[in-house]
Amino acid sequence: MGIILGIDVGGSTTKVVGLRDRKLIGTLQVKAADQITSLYGAIGNFLREHGTKLNEVSSFALTGVGASFIDEPIYGIQTHKIDEFLAVGYGALQLTGLEEVLAVSMGTGTAFVRAGKEAVTHIGGSGVGGGTVIGLASLLLGKSDIDVILSLAEYGRLENIDLFVRDIISHELPSLESSLTASNFGKIKSTASESDIALGILNMVFQTAGMLAVFVLRNDTIRDIVMTGMLSTFPQAKETFLRFQKITDLNFIIPPDAVFATALGAAHCVE
Which residue, among 249, 230, 175, 194, has the nearest Cα to 31 in the 3D structure? Predict the structure, then answer.
């Protein structure tokens, strides 16, 4: 069997994974001004970086919003289009080796997918995600570069942004920790810095995704939640989801290759 390239063509980035005999040979992520340029650039860069040739590729597995722009085989090679939610689910299973999980894909928005060996089901989604971070940061900070936003957030203090439970109750409640958030941006101060605001935006997005995941599994037997997508790799995401893990009976997992989960899942959908 030749190489299978799983390609997740997103709105702003394209992620590629390569499989040879079902084993991962490498990953790559590229950005470009448009999705078609990003797609072909990603293929070329992947082949060059991993010392492989185009004639070694047996098939492409495309997924993501940009896949809809491809209507014919790439370079004359068999090209499959894989349902994005199916790819998200199988990608989470492959990255963890678990039998069943709730896969949470944090992209421009956030998707929730229940995945097991026998079935993958799209539960629903939220419009709160990476697009929210960029949009609010552009409005409140005049900045849209995610690396700049992350750098600012590193020095932020939520005490200057969020209203905590301890701010509105006079004594500890057994069922409600005083350090939990009562209202995102509910205590923003006029002295709040750009760093405070940047951290507040990220915290709100991660808390929303985490709490929705908890709600999704309220009446489910699944206990493992796999966070995927670029946002899940941010340091603030890890802190937030570890906090959720401490106050629930759920296990939040951020796999090492969380960014490439959807591309990996697409590649594994090809026989």
Answer: 230
Q: How confident is the model at residue 1 (pLDDT cuts 50, 70, 90)?
A: low
Question: In terms of domains, do 64 and 118 share one?
Answer: no
45 and 174 assigned to the same domain: no
Helix (H, G, I), strand (E, B) or coil at 2: coil
Residue numbers of the domain that contains 47: 3-81
Number of helices (H) and strands (E) in the chain: give both, helices first. 7, 12
Quick one: 4 exposed, middle or buried, by C-beta within 10 A (0-12, 13-18, 19+)?
buried
Is residue 154 a part of any domain in this protein? yes
Element (H, E) at 30: strand 23-31
DSSP 239-256: HHHHHHHHHSS-EEE--T
CATH code of the domain in which 43 resides: 3.30.420.40
Q: pLDDT digits over 39-81, tens only?
A: 998 999 999 999 999 999 999 999 998 888 888 999 999 999 9
Mean pLDDT across the stretch 78-96? Answer: 96
In a domain, 263, yes or no: no
